[in-house]
Amino acid sequence: MSIQRIKSKWAKTKIMLRSDYLRQYMPSTKLFGRSSLQSMLRQYGMVYVKPINGTFGKGVIRVERTTVPSLGYRYQLDTKIKFYSTFEQLYKGIMKQKKKRRYIVQKGIHLLRHLNRRFDIRVMVQKNPHNVWEATGIIGRLAHPGKIVTNYHSGGTPMSLERLMGDHTTLSELASFKNRLRKLSISIANQLQSAYPRIKELGVDIAVDATLHPWILEVNTCPDPFIFRKLPDQVVFQRVYRYAVHYGRFKKRNSRP
Predict the structure, then answer these.
(1) Residues contacting residue 33 through CB under 8 Å, at least 6 positions apart
(2) Within a domain: residue 1?
(3) Interval 70-98 mean pLDDT
(4) Would you tell me how many other CB atoms lie within 10 Å of the CB of residue 113?
């Protein structure tokens, strides 16, 4: 039986919103449109506009209201920054970039920083050989200094959580926080499995705000296992890869790449 892949961020969001437990960890998300963009900017001040079917952080735009009225709105896509004095100009600029693709608007979370660079967290969740969901790996992703996304394919740097969270938590607080992330990620897997019974692996992207509250940014059903090679402890990558071989993502002959 093939592994199920779900591209639509909106479809996955709607499934997760059915869970009372998960809802407290989900930033407000709506389908992109003039009114949803305007109301969410008014309410939150900063939002992310994302293609529904995008990967690797491509096409993600950060939009925020500025504190300088003459500048109006700040728009960043990749390393390109623009200012629009009115909402109508901003909306036209996004529509030009968007073309005919469908987008969502998500409440912006102000990420924790390390060395003045934003970072978020990827949790790998996989079906183990007993067909039970297990959180097999946790890694931080440090954004490229000039970019808004943390993805490795967009210049982000995979790094251990111990290094990234060192300025924000004690070791015991971090251990407790990692357990919270594991519980949250396994709950996501069980919730999505109720709608998509053939999923075998998830990459859960989590933002952390200044109060150390985790926020579910995105869930990927075809996560990159190789970023875990960047961790000092190779046992994590070996387990991630072994499980992926077991459920058929990779062939056994390649089990020692």
Answers:
(1) none
(2) no
(3) 93
(4) 15
